[in-house]
């Protein structure tokens, strides 16, 4: 997962883009004061992949600037997003044993995991179990 910040002299604030491992747009967050015209332009030219995002700054006369943002791979973020407050010490130990790639996977898989839990009607694993068993690698349908 990669995060980018788009800024421009033509608006205040930033527009955040998140792309998945395949380079496809996963999330868009507008933290900027933009006009209705600018919003319509953005949606019309929405960069659905990283290549399209890079092309935005190459538009002649563009004042747009893209900056890649390092993802927050902290235990605190994982624990907040996991939202099952049991066994924090054990979960933190399990988190520290993961490499950076697996920490990113663990966080990125949470949305699918939550959706699967509601469909499968099963209990949520303790956070340490989720991490120790690397359940973020499960192919949930």
Which tags fit this structure?
single chain; 141 residues; alpha+beta; four-stranded antiparallel beta sheet; 4 strands; elongated
Overview of the molecule:
This protein is α+β, with helices and mostly antiparallel strands. Helices cover 43% and strands 21% of the residues. The protein contains seven helices and four strands, in the order E-E-E-H-H-E-H-H-H-H-H. The protein has helices at residues 36-44, 50-56, 75-82, 88-97, 100-108, 110-120, 127-132, and strands at residues 2-8, 11-19, 25-33, 65-69. It has a four-stranded antiparallel beta sheet, with helices on one face. The radius of gyration is 18 Å and the shape is elongated. The protein starts with a strand and ends in a 9-residue tail after the last helix. The mean pLDDT is 93.
Short description:
The chain has 141 residues and is an alpha+beta fold. The mean pLDDT is 93. It has helices spanning 36-44, 50-56, 75-82, 88-97, 100-108, 110-120, 127-132; strands spanning 2-8, 11-19, 25-33, 65-69.
Across the major sheet, the strand order is 3-2-1-4
Count of helices?
Answer: 7
Number of strands: 4
Helix content: 40-55%
Order of helices and strands: EEEHHEHHHHH
Distance between the termini: 20 Å
Biggest β-sheet strands, sense, barrel: 4 strands, antiparallel
* Rg from Cα: 18 Å
The outline comes out as elongated
**Helix-strand makeup class:** alpha+beta
């Amino acid at each position: 997962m990669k995060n980018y910040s788009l800024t421009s002299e033509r608006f205040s604030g930033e527009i955040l883009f998140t792309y998945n491992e395949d380079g496809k747009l996963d999330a868009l967050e507008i933290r900027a004061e933009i006009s209705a015209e600018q919003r319509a332009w953005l949606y019309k030219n929405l960069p659905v992949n990283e290549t399209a995002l890079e092309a935005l700054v190459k538009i002649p006369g563009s004042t747009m600037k893209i900056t890649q943002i390092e993802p927050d791979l902290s235990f605190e973020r994982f624990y907040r997003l996991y939202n099952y407050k049991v066994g924090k010490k054990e979960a933190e130990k399990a988190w520290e044993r993961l490499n950076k790639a697996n920490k990113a996977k663990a966080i990125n898989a949470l949305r699918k995991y939550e959706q699967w839990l509601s469909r499968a009607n099963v209990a949520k694993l303790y956070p340490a179990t989720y991490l120790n068993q690397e359940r973020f690698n499960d192919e949930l349908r």
